[in-house]
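Hi everyone,

Forwarding the result from last night's run.
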Amino acid sequence: RSLLHASDAQSVKDGLSGILYWGHYRAGIRDHRVERFRTKVTSDQLEQGIKTFNGLVGGSLRRLQELGLPEFRYMAFVSKLRTFLDPERYCVLDKKIASLTPLASRLTFQPTYIPITAQNDRAYKWWVHVCQSLASRLRTRPTMRPVDVERGFFYLVDHSQREIAEQLLQNHRV
């Protein structure tokens, strides 16, 4: 977070690289994606990022996408960026989570990614609101954040407990 909110382009570049590294942690393409980003990102994009990151209001996925940052085009990584900018209020929405009911019915998918569209932006806002609401209700620790709730859903899906995750979503009223 501190690297993304820095005032120098190199720190912001390192912060964005860290998101890609973390997001591709288990994938064999991790190093390639990070290197491709570091090679392709321009000084202008980083300077625009500095201005945008420090003045961002609301979900703003479209605004983040409009920066044209290499590797940050679709929902998974744009929502990761939004989350790292403000983990107290936002969470990630990737294909694994997006396949849960009722999220899947709110989203439009492409075969390999979730595009950022007006409909998908609304679905993201709904998802964030659900995670914020659950975080405030759970209070299993003093500072439960939406991203902590999202990670819990991710864990359930990753550990063959999809039904529990879907029940939680279906039973939750925002």
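The radius of gyration is 16 Å.

Cheers,
N.
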